Amino acid sequence: MPCLDEAETLAVCIQKAQRFLEDNAVSGEVVIADNGSTDGSQDIARSHGARVVDVSERGYGSALMGGIKAACGKFVIMGDADDSYDFSSLMPFLLKLREGNELVMGNRFRGGIKPGAMPPLHRYLGNPVLTGIGRLFFKSPIGDFHCGLRGFSRSAILNLNLRTTGMEFASEMVVKATLNKLRIAEVPTTLSPDGRSRPPHLRSWRDGWRHLRFLLIYSPRWLFLYPGIGLFLLGAFGMLGLAFGPVRIGDLGLDIHSMLYASLFIMLGLQCISFAFFSKIYGISMEFLPRDDKIDKFLELFTCAVAIEI
Predict the structure, then answer these.
(1) Judging by DSSP bridges, how do beta strands 150-153 and 75-78 pair with one another?
(2) What are the tens digits of pLDDT across the range 52-65?
(3) How is 31-42 classified by DSSP, letter by letter?
(4) First to last CA, the chain
(5) Which residues contact 124 (CB under 8 A, 6 or more apart)?
(6) In the prediction, which pLDDT does 306 show?
(7) Spatial CA neighbour of 52 closest among 71, 73, 69, 31
(8) How many Cβ atoms sit within 10 Å of the Cβ of residue 7?
(9) Where do the domains of the chain lie?
(10) CATH of domain 2-217
């Protein structure tokens, strides 16, 4: 559980998780990844038998990665320490993991969202839109990209080399698991109103933008390639249409200036297409993206051609 000043709800979350382990004879531990709490959360966690891992680098993703690295079990189930998820009902996650799945996501839209548990902005705009973009860009089977309750194989997730430090960590895990063809499953999860009296750490527009920016950066096709192809085709059709002289569409006249804009669209389109290609290569070389056989084959041909030319 990532923790930053969760004194109001931390104890009940730990107790529910421990009850799950005891009732189902599961060998495990409760790990609290503390991200610099100043309200005594660390002492509360230790007094209830949890192991506290201090994570100095701030951020939701940093806290989770610190906890995942410190965990000792084969499987890890992560969830927020605000009592919005029921840690005493984790068996569906464990069963899916035991079946061989490497990432098991909760789905709040299938399991139920209790009144007041999720703001309307998140329920009807933020989560559906960002999840829809993620499914479109990466062909992911997940229906709730941002569910905070999920289970996974510790070794499989560590091998993904997750790097984001903020709330977009939730999207990075799903995207990289999909791109690396991990076995993914989903289980219905109920979301309840959190038990804290203070506002949540999540900032809707800031963190929503961080999620969207991450999805675009990890998909050069949608960020550069498809817009580039669209610009190129628009410019090419414009040039062809004006190649034999001015064109009038009602009161609108298209002439040499329109042709200049069309040529600009062609150049911008080609630049975007090439940028998509080099972004993909850079992403692979920096291990942001998995290797692509098509890119590898193209680079081999290009290298051979240069060698022959030399």
Answers:
(1) antiparallel
(2) 999 999 999 999 99
(3) EEEES--SSSHH
(4) 57
(5) none
(6) 47
(7) 31
(8) 18
(9) 2-217, 220-309
(10) 3.90.550.10
